[in-house]
């Protein structure tokens, strides 16, 4: 799992880099509203909404904001957002997946395409890189919640596919079909996780040199800072020195 921690670090840059809490809260609220609109407004009955609420709590989003975002989904005058997945190649031929929620498809496509082009990459067709990733559920817990063996036993019993325990905590992976049941079983045993969501996990990661890595990290930041972008995934590794230099 050498590339795994790199993958996690790169994915988490967004949270550490985003000084504008209002922008982050806006993205979280958008996901909550869309999740509530697509399913039931009860987080206990709606796995996607549950994941969105957990993510919001992890960022200390006020309870009033969360409830307001859910209520917004019940109104007829709320904005309608399209879910779009963009796929492309960044510098060095690295595969990138961008998940967006937008009320203006043309604007989002134009902006995201320009980010790829300026970085020396290119936006591809849907399906052009997603075959290099697995769509999987992840449930994360802090290191202190239980021992490695206890988490492994509970995850196996719950029907999980894989468990990775390390200094950063416990990560339990489950199939898209079994994810909800695994998450519920683990929550009953260990309490609310720090994260529970469906993600795109790279099947393999590619090590890049620092020059390419810097371009890639700048592309990640550009994408993450865009209002319409919810999540960005990529399959590259960079040196620890570059992560430190770039504030990762």
UniProtKB/TrEMBL annotation:
Domain TACO1/YebC-like N-terminal: 5-75
Keywords: Cytoplasm, DNA-binding, Transcription, Transcription regulation
Subcellular location: Cytoplasm
Gene3D superfamilies for the chain: 1.10.10.200, 3.30.70.980
Primary location recorded for the protein, binned into one broad class: cytoplasm
Ranges of residues in domain TACO1/YebC-like second and third: 81-236
A cellular-component GO term for this protein: cytosol
GO molecular function (one): DNA binding
Pfam families assigned: TACO1_YebC_N (PF20772), Transcrip_reg (PF01709)
GO biological process: regulation of DNA-templated transcription
Spans annotated as Disordered: 1-21
HAMAP family, A to Z: Transcrip_reg_TACO1
Stated family: Belongs to the TACO1 family.
Name of the molecule in the record: Probable transcriptional regulatory protein TSA1_07635
Protein source organism: Bradyrhizobium nitroreducens
């Amino acid at each position: 799992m050498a590339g795994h921690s790199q993958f996690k670090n790169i994915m988490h840059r967004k949270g550490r880099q985003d000084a504008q809490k209002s922008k982050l809260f806006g993205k979280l609220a958008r996901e909550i509203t869309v999740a509530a609109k697509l399913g039931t407004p009860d987080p206990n009955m709606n796995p996607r909404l549950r994941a969105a609420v957990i993510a919001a709590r992890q960022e200390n989003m006020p309870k009033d904001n969360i409830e307001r975002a859910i209520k917004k989904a019940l109104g007829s005058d709320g904005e309608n957002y399209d879910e779009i997945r963009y796929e492309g190649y960044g510098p060095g031929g690295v595969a990138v997946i961008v998940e967006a929620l937008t009320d203006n498809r043309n604007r989002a496509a134009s902006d995201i395409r320009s980010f790829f082009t300026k970085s020396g990459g290119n936006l591809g067709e849907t399906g052009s890189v997603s075959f290099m990733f697995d769509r999987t559920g992840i449930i994360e817990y802090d290191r202190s919640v239980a021992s490695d063996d206890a988490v492994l036993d509970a995850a196996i019993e719950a029907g999980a596919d894989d468990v990775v325990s390390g200094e950063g905590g416990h990560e339990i992976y489950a199939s898209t079909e079994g994810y909800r049941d695994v998450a519920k079983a683990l929550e009953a045993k260990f309490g609310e996780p720090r994260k529970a969501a469906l993600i795109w996990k790279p099947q393999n990661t590619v090590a890049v040199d620092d020059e390419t890595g810097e371009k890639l990290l700048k592309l990640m930041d550009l994408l993450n800072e865009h209002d319409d972008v919810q999540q960005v995934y990529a399959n590259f590794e960079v040196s620890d020195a570059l992560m430190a230099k770039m504030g990762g």
